[in-house]
Amino acid sequence: MPATKFDKESIKNTIVGKVQRYNGLPIEEASKAQIYRALASTVRDQIMQKVVECRDIRKKNKGKRLYYLSVEFLMGRSMYCNMLNLLSTKEYTEALQELGIDLREILKEEPEPGLGNGGLGRLAACFLDSLSSLNLPAMGCTIRYEYGLFRQKIVDGQQVELPDSWLDNGNAWETAQMEDTCEVHFGGHVEEVMINGQQKFVTRDYYTVEAVPYDMPVVGYDAVTVNPLRMWSARSPKKLDLKNFSEGRYVQASEEIELAETISKVLYPEDRHYEGKMLRLKQHYFFTSASLQYILKEYKQTFGNDMSKLPQKVVIHINDTHPGMAIPELMRLLIDEEGLGWDEAMNITRQTIAYTNHTIMAEALEKWPVNMVQQLLPRCYQIICEMNRRLCERLWNFFPGDWDRIARMAIVSYDNVHMANMLVAMSYSVNGVSKLHGEILKEETFHDFNLVMPEKFCAITNGITHRRWLMSCNPELTELINQSIGTDWIREPGKLSELRPFADDAAFREEFAKIKQHNKERLAKMLKDRQNVDVDPAFMFDVQAKRLHEYKRQMLNALHILVLYNRIVNDETFTMQPRVFIFGAKASPGYTRAKQIIRMICALSRLIEKHPRARKMLQVVFLENYDVSSAEVLIPAAEVSEQLSTASKEASGTGNMKFMMNGAVTIGTLDGANVEISEQVGMDNIYIFGMRSNTVRDMYRENTYNPMTIYESNHEIREAMTQMIDGTLMPENPAALQELYHSLLLGSWGSIGDSFFVLKDFGSYSMAQKRLNADYADQVKWQKMAVTNTAMSGIFSSDRTIREYNEKIWHLEPLAKPKKK
Ligand code: 26Q
What we know:
Elements: H1 8-23, H2 32-61, E1 65-69, H3 79-85, H4 89-98, H5 103-107, H6 119-133, E2 138-143, E3 151-155, E4 158-162, E5 175-176, E6 182-186, E7 189-195, E8 198-204, E9 207-219, E10 226-235, H7 238-246, H8 250-263, H9 278-303, H10 310-313, E11 314-319, H11 326-337, H12 342-352, E12 353-356, E13 367-369, H13 370-376, H14 378-398, H15 403-409, E14 412-413, E15 416-418, H16 419-426, E16 429-432, H17 435-445, H18 447-452, E17 457-459, H19 466-472, H20 475-485, H21 488-491, H22 506-531, E18 540-545, H23 554-570, E19 579-584, H24 592-610, E20 618-623, H25 628-637, E21 640-643, H26 655-661, E22 665-668, H27 674-681, E23 687-688, H28 693-702, H29 707-713, H30 715-725, H31 738-743, H32 758-777, H33 779-791, H34 798-810
Parallel strand pairs: 1-2, 1-11, 2-10, 11-12, 12-16, 16-17, 18-19, 18-21, 19-20, 21-22, 22-23
Antiparallel strand pairs: 3-4, 5-9, 6-9, 7-8, 9-10, 13-15, 14-15
Helix pairs in contact: 1-2, 1-4, 3-19, 6-34, 7-8, 9-11, 11-12, 11-14, 13-14, 20-22, 22-25, 22-33, 23-24, 23-30
The structure holds ligand 26Q.
């Protein structure tokens, strides 16, 4: 088919034509929603041309393909990034303009797919953008949740959760791929049978759920590649139901219907501790099994039935342990379906699967009760047990007699299946997500495995796509950069460093500051429109936006604001640079203490608002429903980026990179990727405070920390903490923050409190804040720091991250346009 043109005139005609055909309306009378659908459909047509072309190239190439399995992909809106990557923003903007339509207004019509909790899911989305942009053949695999992460409202200063039914008006980007529908089996029991003199394992009396795939295209920037995100949706197998009904197995049949409908219903809003929920295990296995079946089907179509070449043609990447059942599932498919022997299947599996760890927090390490796995996945459980037996045998030779150590390393121990141990033992690569995190994995979390199989471990620092997180969300800054250093940095983001000399160029700094000011005004407008909150764009914008967790220490920030308030109130001569502290954070619905911290922040906001002198230099705003779209407005407006995690606890962080890239200066601990940010910009362009990770580790080991001594010796802390419970913060309900107050002093059952060293790091944080406040008064100095941060952020592009994954782990060949003869 000849290629359709997508120049301004054809775009105009196409949109007008679609509105006419879909809605029977002239364009002037179409609603924003109707225009949105016509526009999305036009962009989609343009993408589909590329899909065809890309398919063709892949067919001829017969290269290796990556399957990135993740239980979350936090994609955000697609429309503008799609236009950007198609190099067509100008054409679309002008075409709409000539139709009297403002593109920005139409973009707001797109529902945001919030199919993730935070960092891990957003990382997966950035990776897809970079994979396509680097022309690497890949497919993202996940669940098509009917409900994404809850929408957050603040009512009377407290978080309320609302459902996010993002599919209500359909999803303009997806296509159902019915021909790839497959069955996933649960339950039943395993029987050993002899077929043609061979021992076989067959599962009987299982129940079936159908997995229906929906593909969303991810276009690369100026690339030939369009990689799909494949989202599996669960459906009840109707035929089987009828049979069950007619045979009177009513209960079983209705269970199946319920199960099928529930599996892809809702994203779990927990990103903290793992809980042994049966439905969660079903979700994980459901999309993992469907993905693996598809992977083998595609492999066989291209390469035939010889499975021995699988590791050369397929790499399966496991994003955290959640899709870890890929290991027994691949073994099962190879042995039971493809007829391979155990050793051969194990060799192939071990060379095909790679694993990324995202957390060292013990409570987040996934483990499943043996009886649950046995009941739900009987054949996988058998395979897990045999893998465990062989692993323990090997470990026994390495650590003879060391039962404790072997039990800690085993896949099955103390009635649990330990997913991380299984993945480390059975994959060919294990990586951490920052330098520091990689070290901690080797020295602590997987210390013993590192003795046995050191060659598997590496660290690859996370990244973010500069296309969404700079070009799309901050077009004015992008334009300024292009005018100053040209556009090479877009393909090679490392070249952003060519901006560094411009830190000393007064005219450049002025432009840079002007853009920041615009972005602050844009955020101020959003806060006014959405929450009816007035903020003064002349104030310094200080932002902490991330999930709410004790280890991320929003509490440290809140306590410090309360201390600032007291300094103002207690001393009429005290002044500071006027500053608005903006928080964005969702708390897991069941995480009571996190919800109390939100209450505390909202109470702080009200308290300050009431004081005529304090409100002139201090303000607190809680931005409701922090998600990808609001981040795209919030981050370009930030001047200060708060990255306060207790050292060693934040595996990497990626928000820190987004803020930096948009010219915010970081105040943070030496944790996760903050370490590398500080190396990039140098200590003069960042505010580092607090304990180092090895000190934190020693403190935990020695168990010597006592927050009470700090409480007693620091009157500012004492005063602020007392206000948490004496009615100052909570006049209506003085007891509301009591538990939070106590958690900072005493732990449960008499153990020591403040497990994340809020009080311990307070003094150091407060000093860093004083320096920051003084430096901000010197705007030349401040703008130099801001420019330096943007200039040195190129290394945090996910393009660099993906290149590193490809060199160290995946070894994919980039797709290329066939040379014209
Ligand atoms: C798993 C099983 C049961 C219940 C919950 C979970 C679960 C779900 C999501 C556990 C953890 C998560 C998400 C973790 C996460 O987002 N980690 C972050 O990953 C980022 C990308 O690597 C890092 O930058 C962050 O430091 C890390 O916290």
